[in-house]
Amino acid sequence: VSPPLENTEATRAANDPFIASPQTLSLEDCLSIALKENRLLKQSQNRVKIAQTKKEQLVATQLPTANVQVSKSHLSPHPSSASDQQDSQQLSISESFDPFGKFRSQKQAVNSNLKAAQEENNDYSLETAFLVTRAFYDVILAVELRQVASESVAQLTLHRDNTKALVDAGTAPDFDLIRAEVQLAAVQTTYIK
Fold it and tell me: Looking at beta carbons, which pairs linking 185-189 to residues 24 or more positions away fall under 8 Å?
């Protein structure tokens, strides 16, 4: 007889790599994760790399090129005949010539594209940092507001109980009890939200 399998949430969380255990993150941790994992930011960084590569390719087309060829042929088994031997050497150097400024305009376009990609990347980084920072402080504010609401519910519950005791003793009117219950209900509604 095999023991029954435990199917508790804790057991599943421990065995499943996709269920993370809760942890406290600082603002720096949140920003680091967001900047590393943001899909739009990754795409923007790839566009910067592409623009940089295109710039390097354009510059490479304007660099001079050199070709060297050396060949030697020997056709006769007797080296005495000079006509049977062939020696050939060739050296060529070529350089691009741009008389009409085509390279300059292409370079300006490539530089503009690179700058636009870098600006877009910077914008995505700043936007991501802003949104994460705002969300981080919104969570902190929500936790604090929940604590304040919890304390208000406790205070108003105590006030309602004291008012009920006074009404039962005959030293306070029923209106005070109704007002305390309404105040408590309003704060409880806020606490639930």
Answer: 187/149, 187/152, 187/153, 187/156, 188/153
